Amino acid sequence: MKKKIAVLPGDGIGPEIVQGAIEVLRVIEENFQHEFEYEFGNIGGNAVDIDGSPLPDKTINLCKNSDAILLGAVGGPKWETLPVPLRPEQGLLKIRKELNLFANLRPTTYYESLAGSSPLRQEIIEGVDLFVVRELTGGIYFGKPSERTTINGQSGAVDTLVYSKEEITRVLEKAFEIAQTRSKKITSVDKANVLESSRLWRECANEIAKKYPDVSLEHMLVDNAAMQLIRNPKQFDVIVTENMFGDILSDEASVLTGSLGMLPSASISESGPYLYEPIHGSAPDIAGQNIANPLATILSAAMLLRVSFQLEEEAAIIEKAVNAVLDNGFRTRDIISPNTKIVSTTEMVEEVKKEIVAKLANKLNA
Ligand SMILES: NC(=O)c1ccc[n+]([C@@H]2O[C@H](COP(=O)([O-])OP(=O)(O)OC[C@H]3O[C@@H](n4cnc5c(N)ncnc54)[C@H](O)[C@@H]3O)[C@@H](O)[C@H]2O)c1
Ligand SMILES: CC(C)[C@H](C(=O)O)[C@@H](O)C(=O)O
Ligand SMILES: [Mg+2]
To answer: Between 20 and 30 A from 84 (CA), which of 197, 213, 216, 227?
Structure first.
């Protein structure tokens, strides 16, 4: 099968981790007789430098004409003082909006061998398996006005949190569908004690819940949810929430697995193409040193195979290989713990590739 993947490495550690994920995809191609075509595009700060825009038209066209998109991360100090339209993050927000990627799926899985890398006690995180569904194209990230202004003669600023019923409903529907395939429990997170948009969100959730009688719905205020995620994360299965709450809670959830460098994501629309990226950023503090953890991006590539290309076996073998590499004690610095072996980004990628090949050989010999 020939499929086209748009590859947007972005900034900071983006190119290093995306390179790793592509190498893993190539091993899958060779061993499963697939053919993927990779076409590269600029996004973020590098696109500002090269094309004068954080999301050039040619990148949008490339994405629209591909079967799936793999993205690294954008941003960095170099571009922080640019005018808003030229900020790297604007490129990311715009591609999400252009492709109508309204639901961002962020699974958080417990890895037994990483228990020692989490600041939380093993009994708290053991067996955690939660799935954040984050609304991605609405809310305070996109509401207008968003600008500097004058308030009572003083300089001020305004951002606008706005949601239509349709925007809320479609992401909630998606979350209920996902919950039906898992343990049939949803926690809808909001701030309905304060925000009108959250009260609408809660109403919509209650309405949709009637269509899914097999799924149990609970509501939780976001401040409590942030605390419960650390106190007792195993109470959660699917968490559905609006854009900014989902951004914050999913970074928090990554601590349960041991590191931000472990969490993949898929951003989906009604029609595709879908976009896959790690949940972390461009990590300027460690960029260019070959020490970043490539596993979140490799796991994002696995999600791409599963969700966009329906290649379940191929996705699963990548995930199993990642597990095995961790079990074998290989660690980038962010997940180091006693009695493990520190490896570089490229060495970690090599270990994952070796494990995939070894697993396939074992299967053949079985
Ligand atoms: N999706 C994206 O492209 C995305 C997401 C978040 C932040 N950003 C951007 O990234 C830049 C840096 O933001 P930040 O520092 O707040 O967040 P960040 O996620 O880049 O980094 C936070 C911390 O986690 C570490 N980290 C992140 N990914 C890692 C990995 N794969 N391996 C090892 N350590 C890792 C970093 O070294 C840093 O200490 C900003 O410009 C921000 O806007 C982009
Ligand atoms: C870089 C930023 C715009 C982005 C977001 O807030 O969505 C990031 O934090 C993420 O989680 O993908
Ligand atoms: Mg984020």
So the answer is: 197
